[in-house]
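Q: Got a minute? One more chain.
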Amino acid sequence: MNGLVIFVMAGFAIGIGFVTGSPVPVGIAGVLVAAYIFSLLTSRGHLSRLSVERETDGQMIEVGASILARLRIHSQGAVPFRWMLVRDRIPKGVIVDSPTGRLSFGSGFESQGFFYKATFPSRGIFDLGPAELSSGDLLATREVTQVDDHALTIVVHPRIVPMVAFRLPSSRPFGDLRADPKSHEDPTRPSGCRPYAYGDPMKRIHWPATARTGALLSRLYDGSSSPVTAVIVDQSTDSYPDEASFELACCVAASILACLLRDGAEAGLVGPGLKADSGDLHLERCLASLAGLTLSFQSFADQLLQFREELPWRPSLIVVTSKIDERGAAALEIIRSAGGTIALAAVGADDEIAQQSMGLVVALGGSVMRIRKEVELESGRFISANER
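A: Always. Here it is, folded:
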């Protein structure tokens, strides 16, 4: 019922009263106009005083997991004579077990809110919200709708399958453990500065620290380091027969990284700004990157060469893909010839293509692992060329 309808009804009632000479229709017309004015006053500017609060029991979850969300509305000042409808926007494909909206009257909604459980069956980065707010007076003479500008990001990472701890062969010439006293310094592990010593090469001088102190200072490095593992997921559409194989590749990469990092190793996911590190916080960063991976038309060889300069010194490189062609093998040979070690996790159901890809990596002296489905990761391990 809008204002025009109310005024037409009031005019019609006044006309009836004028014709019949009865004051009752005129009184009804007055009540209608007074109710309309009252409704305008009670609903005016109400949405501008509302704020949305959304709470969840987690923002980073595994594929297939659920979160419990709670939506509450806070109002600056009570407006009892109005109704309000709140609807939370849910991403496509997300499954909810209860209504994601609520209709309330008066001011009771702010103190209660409502809950719903959302299940995320696929990997990705999703936004819960923003919420759509609609409000009006109790006589439904006016309705105002606005969209809240707050949404909550939910990161859905690949499933992590527990694996047996493993270590790939290190290509570091001075061993896997830090020497004490140091017998060799690793230029990939700066640990501070020391006064310049006669004979130090120019590239060792720490110029920013020298400029700050006014005295020549040389970089100080840790001794020989533990192996650094870099995991790369092939994102080429030509490498996978279907989307399920790519999702399996993301699951394998997540499981490998979790196994390495939780075992105290240094590892990282190859991509923009690659940084090998250790610990649970770094694992979360890697999982967030895996959550956002998508297929592209860039070949695996081009992808690897693009990030070649960001790889750590003498890396242990683990490639996760369904297929490696001759160009991909040539790109891996560049990494191997620079002192790195190569390993392949061949995923997917096509055994013939997997065997061909594994053969190319074995020819480079690398290790291989065959994964057809997630459950095989529990006992999966890399087999070296000598073991084959």
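A: The CA atoms of residues 169 and 341 lie 7 Å apart.
Q: Perfect, thanks.
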